[in-house]
Amino acid sequence: MNKKMDARLPRDRVLEVAARLFAEQGIDAVSVRDITGAAGVNLGTINYHFGSKENLIHEVFETLLAPLQERRLALLDQIEAQAGDGPLDLELVLRAIVEPTIRSSIGQEGAVVYLPRLMFQVYAVARPFLGEKNSELNDRVAKRFIDAISRAAPGVPYEQVCWRYYMVVGGFLQLVSDALGSNRLHRLSDGCCDTGDPNRVIEELITFFMQGMTAPAGSLRQDAFNNPGREAFLEALASPF
């Protein structure tokens, strides 16, 4: 254990170590003993400060997620205040979604860098006790941003905005998780894509999301209908493997 961690209170050490282990190994794979051993505290520490592993998981997510969501909402409040009764700037709204996560994760230290990988686990595996808590923290913020995007892109149907908002969130979580984990994009691009550069990551994401968010609804599907090879392709897709 390093001196920096030694100087922290046992509760804080447990939270930071738990976030790291959950992100690296998976929430279900990490035991209380794993956490206390890595944090250098006794087994009773988790029960004393959190009561149970489930409560510790709640605390990890709330500790990491709440400040990030507050930052996003503060940025959105500023964008709305500047716009007054006029239209919102779509690029600024998307930046308010994306930039806080990128800036707090890539090239930084501390437990918050593990949040994207933890969020992927929430989406991938159903855990009722965690899903309910996660919804409390996220749904209010998500609906604020969906409404803001609708105001910034009035020509896009609300249903499409909802679909695309979810794709935005999934896209940047995937990229940040890759940058903090396997760096697969860096390998696939033969080193051309530097996922360790937060500024480049942000600009690539915003450029992509701006185009996707404002694309005409259904335009790609209409192109597919006009493709003579479409029926044969769909038949092949429907065939059992």
Automatic annotation (TrEMBL):
DNA-binding region(s), residue ranges: 31-50
Location of the HTH tetR-type domain: 8-68
This protein's UniProt keywords: DNA-binding
Keyword DNA-binding recorded: yes
Superkingdom: Bacteria
Entry keyword annotation includes Kinase: no
Pfam families (UniProt xref): TetR_C_30 (PF17939), TetR_N (PF00440)
InterPro entries per UniProt: DNA-bd_HTH_TetR-type_CS, Homeodomain-like_sf, HTH-type_TetR-like_transc_reg, HTH_TetR, PsrA_TetR_C, Tet_transcr_reg_TetR-rel_C_sf
Designated name of the protein: TetR/AcrR family transcriptional regulator
